[in-house]
């Protein structure tokens, strides 16, 4: 038996379901009340579309004639009589009835959210929240309006228009906006609505167009159904707020039924096959540095042709001029959830500041929508704020190092010391203060700083100064900071600093020669997480942290004097990536990230416990241990044997340094040191 679906359409959900049925090769008859509704649903090989109003008798005859698998009711939520007729016809013919509810709204039109605290709870009495009044029935709204003054723009449709004739002076007060169909205009004329009091237009209407109509008729009130996003409710609400007009909302009738996605799942179960999505489009659009004049032609075309614009609150609101609903959301999972709940949006643009490939939200969005056959994702790059900034200061930028301060920790001083020119993407009002403080602390007072703020906007500001001059300056979020260090490029590339370069006191320190060999055995990599256990003065910690700002070093030490020296050496070498941990190993490891590399310079008699704890944190950690007593060496070798490690290496290092004795040099021997290195098995 061939399975066939009966679909009563009248909403976006009905149109989308018809498209899915056609794409999936499912036979369906689709019925709309008007010719306009029929034109909205493209007929195909499998889906046939019919227009014309049907009463309960005609519906019953149609259901008997075709013997449908089920009847899906996707008519408008305010067409209560139609839904009741469909339900009764299904009951009489034994046809399964499925009511498809219209999606709720989470569109970000701020005005739609203003003053709605009264909500449905006060609807019966017309209680308002701010200047919004919600009523369950049109008659209640009319009664309320009898006690008001001022013109009224009614957008509830022609069927309910007659109710407003009960208002005193309705002929001069009420302006009706209806569909531009000849029969609708004729019906309104018979009720007494014509001339300038009748606006016949086809939507969708942007907030700006709604506002223009309100101002044109000098309306003090706007009457609308709570018709959902697809019905343009957010745009009406925003326009009313901007015009200072009261918003009268006829609440959506309470219904029971299925969401669009649940209805699709039910149909798939009944049909025994999956319904293909008609294919949805998602465009990630670079919106440039700020001003809309910087939008590319492709970006403008995308925003003009899409159905929904999403993005941050600032960006979304700046793009309202395109006349599209805006969604203040750009978090990948939240945006995906919204679009899945709102299938009516088949073509969405996400506005992203600057360029889509430079510290952009596009990366997360691409990952979230990756592998989804129901979405076709396209990236449209924009003008980068970086390129615009350097054009404004008349400079090229091929030699610039980029560092983002947006929610990230960065070793500011190390970056500026190592690279001649560093561009920081500001991460808040205090970003410039942080940069200046780090440079002053590192002794880089001569660094030239150029700030680009609110680029391309009327409030654009380019400022130049030193860290001292700019240290108290706050920035707007849309800022770039260029630091140019004339002394950069003289950073020593090799490890093995002289012992004299460290502040030492009476605390033991790993000597230069032993340190050089130990670091070579440690085999550090970019983004390494290093534990320096028994750090002492911090000579090994400093050497590791200096190699790369991507390395994170945790210096574990229990001695108060040594901890104080660690702090001093950290400040001297300006190492933001060196973290000092006060405590005794292995207990001090709690809360630290798992290490990739570990240096043990002192164990306090807990060698085996320390090594066991290290491999519990990361079984593949690279470990280097310095030892001066045979007993300590024995403990390490016993641990290696018990742990089943096979790649251990032992080096005994004896070094001697020269010392002047008159005109001659004497070689002064140092204590021999065992250097043991190995890598965890990873099991």
If you had to describe this structure to a student in words, what would you say it looks like?
The chain has 683 residues and is an alpha/beta fold. The protein folds into five domains: 104 residues, NAD(P)-binding Rossmann-like Domain (Rossmann fold); 141 residues, Rossmann fold (3-Layer(aba) Sandwich), CATH 3.40.50; 105 residues, Tetrapyrrole methylase, N-terminal domain (Cobalt-precorrin-4 Transmethylase, domain 1), CATH 3.40.1010; 91 residues, Tetrapyrrole methylase, C-terminal domain (Methyltransferase, Cobalt-precorrin-4 Transmethylase, Domain 2, 2-Layer Sandwich), CATH 3.30.950.10; 181 residues, Vaccinia Virus protein VP39 (Rossmann fold, 3-Layer(aba) Sandwich). The protein contains 24 helices and 31 strands. A seven-stranded mixed β-sheet has the order 6-7-12-11-8-9-10, sandwiched between helices. A seven-stranded mixed β-sheet has the order 25-24-23-26-27-31-28, with helices on both faces. Helix 8 links the parallel strand 9 and strand 10. About 4% of the residues have low confidence.
CATH class of the largest domain: Alpha Beta
**What would you give as the CATH superfamily of the largest domain?**
Vaccinia Virus protein VP39
Major beta-sheet overview: 7 strands, mixed
Please count the beta strands (DSSP E, at least 2 residues each): 31
